[in-house]
Amino acid sequence: MNEIVMPKLSDTMTEGRLVSWKKRVGDEVRRGEVIAEVETDKANMELEAYAPGVLLEIRVQSGEMVPVGTVIAVVGKAGEKAGGADGASAGAEPPPAEAVQPERGGEEPAGEPQAQAEQGAAEQGAAEQGAAEQGAAETVSAQGGEAPRVASTGGEEGGAPRAEPARAADLALGEGEKQAPAAPPRPGDEKTQPVSESTGAPRQYIQTRAPYSGGPAQETAPAGRERAAPVVRRRARELGIDLGQVRGTGPDGRILLQDLEGEGGKPLETAEAARPAQPQAQPQAQAAQPQVEAVPAEDKAKGPRLVQEVKAMSRLRAAVAKTVADSWAHIPHFTVTMDIAMDEAESVRRQLKQGGMRITVNDLIVKAVALALVKFPQLNASFAQEGLQFHGEVNVSLAVGVPEGVLMPVIHGCQDLSLPAIAQEADRLVQLARSGALTEQEMNGGTFSVSNLGMFQVSSFSAVIPPSQGGVLAVGAVVDVPVLRSGVLANSKMMKVTLSADHRVVDGAYAAQFLVELRGVLENPVRLLM
């Protein structure tokens, strides 16, 4: 028997949320097969089984948050009992207890054959009902003066009688009665079963409901949950959008943030009206809910209102906060800024686009950074207690903004990749980041970072160096500026870049030389095509 625990899928992960189960109790599991989906502080990850067998027990249900190392399931051989199962779930016989059979005009209770028949009928549903036998039967007044007695507990007499858990003896058949044939209820189904059946007496029913005690798992996930990343689900809740009504355009039908754009433009009242009518809640809950209709029309016209409150951070936001705080506290930053003429680079990009290659300015920068780092490998190194840690590859991390924070997917081996290959890999990683489908391998191993805010028309900024790296390049927008060329006023496309470097790894002169090399590559972009 093997226990499946909540794994530690990242250096910053201390707990994880079980998004959905891909297997149910009793299903066969093969080694390496995906059995569940787990939400970390950065992305959703698939959990694989490391041993074959049968899924015997699920201890953590979908949506629950548990610490790393918690046992979430048990896999073993078919028929093997899970270690934590109790007697009730294993189908053990009910404990003996005092119970009095209903009186029938002085007649004695049924004899030994009836007791055996009753015991067999009671054990027929014990394996699936388990603990549901407790509190499942309600005493109903018998017809024609027949009144069952209520058993007392602990020898207490004279007090008010109280109901006891139903036992096998409580269901004994009286003389002349027949056992009503009934199949054991499936878990989760509500059924009514006759208490007894006697000649000339109407049937009496009790309400029963079989529990999920160690049986097959409930629904693996709510509709649409496993097809959307945590950031997408949170954004959908903010906009009041039902993900079940949104068609995903991402990998395997995943719902992306851009899929919510059409729905997000709807006003809140429209989203509320589109929801199905909810059953009437308790008065206290209704009083606590804000009334959208009570807001005056003139207040709505003023736009969004500020609300003073404290909101708990999302897991990604908390991870980003911890990472940048540690980096800023332990890495001595310094910055160097330089202007780069992008006329030739823009011309090459347009020509490649006309030839069917989708190349962005950021792709040109990543390729140029890789070429410059090969000549200045100390900026591709990182600080360690034993010395400077140099790396054999140029692995560039790309800063990708998502609603809850920043993700840093990594393009590995950039020094050996062509410009089209870098563009293709960058586009793939950005799409995975926005859909929340990045794997831990795709976010680890970065040696240098690039952060670009040019699409927001930001002229320049400085970025925070990620841990275990020596520098990060902050890229601004490409703008048209007037320049003098041979005494003639002309127009040029200029871009500002700011290098943040670890002063323990490099000095200012080394960083400046790196930027000179980077500028040389971008202003003469033929090297980017080699």
Describe it for me?
The protein is an alpha+beta fold. The chain is 24% helix and 21% strand. It is built from twelve helices and 20 strands. The strands form six sheets. A six-stranded mixed sheet has the order 11-20-19-18-14-17. It has a four-stranded antiparallel sheet with strand order 1-8-6-3, with no helix packed on it. A four-stranded antiparallel sheet has the order 5-4-2-7, with no helix packed on it. The longest helix is centred in the C-terminal third of the chain and has 17 residues. The relative contact order is 0.10. About 29% of the residues have low confidence.
Could you outline the blueprint of secondary structure elements for this entry?
Blueprint: E1 2-5, E2 15-21, E3 28-29, E4 34-39, E5 44-48, E6 53-58, E7 65-67, E8 71-76, H1 112-124, H2 126-129, E9 190-196, E10 204-209, H3 230-239, H4 261-264, H5 268-274, H6 283-288, H7 297-301, H8 315-330, E11 333-341, H9 343-354, H10 361-375, E12 382-384, E13 387-389, E14 396-398, E15 400-402, E16 405-407, E17 410-411, H11 419-435, E18 448-452, E19 471-485, E20 488-502, H12 508-523
Parallel strand pairs: 14-18, 18-19
Antiparallel strand pairs: 1-8, 2-4, 2-7, 3-6, 4-5, 6-8, 9-10, 11-20, 12-13, 14-17, 15-16, 19-20
Low-confidence stretches: 84-122, 124-161, 168-184, 187-199, 205-225, 264-288
The order of strands across the largest sheet is 11-20-19-18-14-17
Helix content: 10-25%
Number of helices: 12
Portion of residues in beta strands equals 15-25%
Largest sheet: 6 strands, mixed
Spatial extent as radius of gyration? 34 Å
Helix/sheet category: alpha+beta
**Separation, N- and C-terminal Cα atoms:** 57 Å
> Based on CA inertia axes, which overall geometry fits?
globular
Q: Tally of extended strands?
A: 20
Mean pLDDT: 75
